[in-house]
Amino acid sequence: MINSSCHEYSSSEREVFTVWMKSLVISSNGCTVFNSKGDNVFRVDNYQTGVALKSCSWTTMVKCFSPSNERFDDGVGEWFKVKRECRIPGRGMITCHVTLGCNKTGNCSYKIVGLQGKQTVKITDRAGRVLAEVMQKQSQAGGVSLGDDVLSLMVEPQIDQSLIMALVIVYGMINHKL
C-alpha cells in the first residue's frame, strides 16, 4: 500500500493518458490506463466490495468503496471524501466536491465537473484552475472519435496522478460507468 502522505505519481510536464474502459483481466469490469509511450501505468478493477486503483506493478494503491459510502481509502486511512451536489433539472451538469483528509496543514478542495451523459470531465482546484481533463479520445489524423470506451486524460504538471485517477474512478462510479 502507498502511504497517503507520500503519493509520488507526478511529472514535471503535462501528461496525456489513454483510458481504455476495458479490463485486462478476463471476465472483469474496470479499465486500463496507458501513458503516451504506450506503457500500462494504472489498472482499475471493479469488485463486489468496491473499486481498486492499481499501479503498473498491480499493487493496490486506493480502494474506492460504494459511492453511497463516500469513503476512499489508501489502506492507511481515509484519503479523501466526495460530496455530490444536488442535480438541478435541465442544467445537465454533475458537480462533486472533494475534500482531502490526509493534508495535515488543512484540507484541500477540488471540484469534479462533468456533463450528464457525456464523457467530458474537468477536475479543478479551489481557485478554479483546471488540473485534469477527461474527454473522448480522437485520432491524431482527422480527429475521428475512437469510440465511447477510449478516453484521453490530460493531467497538468506537478499534480498527483494517482489522486486524479482516483477522482476519475469516483466520477465513473457515481455515473455508473465503472
Percentage beta strand: 35-45%
The span between the termini is 22 Å
CATH architecture classification = Beta Barrel
CATH topology, what is it called? Answer: Porin
- The CATH class is Mainly Beta
- Order of strands, widest sheet: 1-2-3-4-5-6-7-8-9-10-11-12
Structural class: mainly beta
Number of extended strands: 12
* Large-scale geometry: globular
Task: Give the integer mean of the pLDDT values.
Answer: 77
Radius of gyration: 15 Å
Tally of distinct domains? 1
Element order: H for helix, E for strand: EEEEEEEEEEEEH
Largest sheet entry: 12 strands, antiparallel, barrel
> What is the fourth-level CATH superfamily?
LURP1-related
Low-confidence spans? 1-7
Count of helical stretches: 1
- Helical residue percent? under 10%
InterPro entries: LOR, LOR_sf, Tubby-like_C
Protein name: Protein LURP-one-related 2
Family: Belongs to the LOR family.
Can you lay out the helices and strands and say which pair or pack?
Layout: E1 15-20, E2 29-34, E3 40-47, E4 50-55, E5 60-64, E6 71-73, E7 78-84, E8 93-100, E9 109-115, E10 121-125, E11 130-136, E12 150-155, H1 161-174
Antiparallel strand pairs: 1-2, 1-12, 2-3, 3-4, 4-5, 5-6, 6-7, 7-8, 8-9, 9-10, 10-11, 11-12
List the defining traits of the structure above:
single chain; 178 residues; mainly beta; Porin; 42% strand; globular; disordered N terminus
